[in-house]
Design goal:
Helix content: 40-55%
Order of helices and strands: HHHHHH
Mean pLDDT: 78
Low-confidence stretches: none
Radius of gyration: 30 Å
Structural class: mainly alpha
Amino acid sequence: MSGNSSVGQGSVYEAGDQRNYKDSEIQHADRYHEGTANSHKANDSKDERSIANRLAREEQRQNEPEPISKEAAESQKDPTLPARNHGNEPSKGAKIDAEIQAEEDELLRKKGIKK
């Protein structure tokens, strides 16, 4: 049928990469990243998950701890550490936070709460 068209080149109408595979080939083919992380967006209006599935997922998320970035974890230990890791001088606020944290740690050690 592709030879009867008078529009475009014949190669446009040839099978090319469109192939019909046998069922035996499909069953043994590798799946392309099946079930990748973040494949479903929570607020995607075109996502076809049911409301019950969305509610179940949100309940699971409530029980999961929120992931903390490396820099956030570093800033909890030492407020000046993220700036120093990037080769910058810590801000005045970060220096003050570090002093306050050191004072509080010292008070806790004196009380015997923190070692």
